[in-house]
Design brief:
- The protein has one domain.
- The protein contains 7 helices and 2 strands.
- Strands 1-2 form a two-stranded antiparallel sheet.
- Keywords: Membrane, Transmembrane, Transmembrane helix.
- It holds the Pfam family DUF4112.
């Protein structure tokens, strides 16, 4: 069980963190193969577009929940950066799939929130940042969809050229 750096009660006992920790674990560390932990997020990302978008929306949902629990704007911005990096790099075929298994954005975000609660770091509410988070999420979502569409379009053109079909 994790201990806070102040040596007080275990960080996992904070009721505000329990649900967030469970969802984050499901997304990033639920399964173990040969000592390597992974969750459903990298598995979802094997499904083109839908997996990337679904994983990103779940991460943003967790971030909004953390912001409602009083995470500061600075922490929320770091969390959005983690989730966005995971979504953008994760959208790249093959390289992104490998990255998704290793990066674990949701676990990183829970560590940020744990530091906020157990160590008193990152004080302050995140109310003003929630709107920005939603705007950034929308822009990133559109960008991920655009990249996925262009990739699929390229794959179809490449496939047509490979088999000699003209459209």
């Amino acid at each position: 069980m994790e201990q806070s750096s102040t040596g007080s009660t275990p960080a996992i006992q904070d009721k505000r963190l329990k649900l967030i920790r469970r969802i984050s674990r499901l997304l990033d560390e639920q399964f173990s193969v040969g000592g390597f932990k992974f969750g459903i997020d990298p598995l979802l990302n094997l499904i083109p577009v839908a997996g990337d978008v679904g994983g990103y929306l779940m991460s943003i949902g967790l971030i909004i929940t953390m912001a409602q629990y009083g995470a500061s704007g600075k922490v929320v911005a770091k969390m959005v950066l983690n989730a966005t990096l995971d979504a953008l790099v994760g959208a790249i075929p093959v390289l992104g799939w490998i990255f998704d298994f290793a990066y674990k954005a949701n676990t990183r975000n829970v560590k940020l929130l744990t530091a906020h609660y157990t160590e008193g770091r990152h004080k302050g509410g995140a109310g003003p940042v929630i709107f920005t988070v939603l705007i950034v999420t929308g822009v990133i979502l559109i960008l991920v969809l655009f990249i996925a569409f262009k990739f699929l379009q390229w794959m179809m053109q490449w496939g047509d050229k490979a088999i000699g079909i003209k459209i």
